[in-house]
Amino acid sequence: MQRNIIEPGKLPLLLALTAFVLTFLITRLVTRLIRAGKGPFGNVKAGGLHIHHVVPGVVLIVVGGFGAVASGRHGFGAAICAVLFGMGAGLVLDEFALILHLDDVYWTEEGRKSVEVVVLTAALVGLLLSGFSPFGVNDMSQEELHSRGDVISTVVVNFLFSLAVLSKGKARMAIFSVIVPLIGLIGLIRLARPGSPWARRFYRRRPRARAKSALRAYRHDRRWAGPRRKLQDLLGGKPDPVPPRAP
Questions:
Q1: Residue 222, domain member (yes or no)
Q2: What are phi and psi of 45, to 5 degrees?
Q3: Kind and range of the H or E element at 45?
Q4: Three-state SS for 46?
């Protein structure tokens, strides 16, 4: 903790990530209680206008961001600004789908994008936080320098692999392959998804590969659609049913 978090100046990042995750979880809990009509909570309105929580989120991001720039990386002020920034980011990304569609799609199928973006953001920040950075750490032995250099080299190579996996249209595998090389290796071996840059470049004159890629993507989506939907419902709540269209 002291050598890997505090000395390299990663404590504000840890505080921001913690505030980000807790704010998202608490916000989802409150909105689900409001939706169910339970608890003392309710929608915030001003003059008949529904104030979404993305609005205070933007305010917190602005205050925390500019405060962090003014206070530097160390000190109590930097910690407070990091917490404010993490809280604001959690509120804003919880309504990412609303910003993307410019519509209130919070409890719709489109609203699931918010949960996906929050999970991916937390994973990326977690990867950045868990990296063994030697910069800012003082009085390290030669063995520590060598071990940290090996770790950094491994992460760089895995990152290059993850870029190749990302070009195959597999964003989730690309993110986690940075620290788990086996995931990147699996992503490199398997066929690219249809429409990905890799497929457009290397499958253009290979109709058989294109057909196998489409079939594998269909089977993969059909197999994992159910578990992925259950996980999203657990984190963000089940979306409203789509009303039937009038004949």
A1: no
A2: -130, 150
A3: strand 45-46
A4: strand
Q: What is the Rg, in whole angstroms, of the alpha carbon atoms belonging to the chain?
A: 22
Provide the token pair at 158: 């895995």
Are 143 and 122 in contact, with CB atoms under 8 Å apart?
Answer: no
In the numeric block, the tokens 């890629």 are attached to 213
**Helix 142-167 to helix 181-189 angle, to the nearest 10 degrees?**
30
| Residue 29 token pair | 């809990």
Matching residue, tokens 């920034």: 85
With beta carbons less than 8 A apart as the criterion, state whether 106 and 37 touch.
no
Structural domain span for residue 68? 1-139
pLDDT band at 131 (very low <50, low <70, confident <90, very high): low
Domain count, the chain: 1
Residue 97 lies in a domain: yes
Task: Yes or no: say if 169 and 195 are a contact pair by the CB < 8 Å rule.
Answer: yes
Least confident of 12-26, 88-102, 220-234: 220-234
pTM (two decimals): 0.71
Structure tokens at 108: 């719709």
- Nearest CA to 217 among 170, 154, 161, 171? 170
Element (H, E) at 50: strand 49-50
Whether the Cβ atoms of residue 90 and residue 57 lie closer than 8 Å to each other = yes
Instruction: Flag whether 225 is in a domain.
Output: no
Q: What is the DSSP letter of 102?
A: T
Residues 6+ apart with CB under 8 A from 227: none
Residue 24 domain-assigned?
yes
3 pLDDT band (50/70/90 cuts)? low
CA-CA distance, 113 to 235, in Å (whole number)?
12
**CA–CA distances in Å: residue 95 to residues 24, 90, 103, 240:** 10, 9, 10, 16
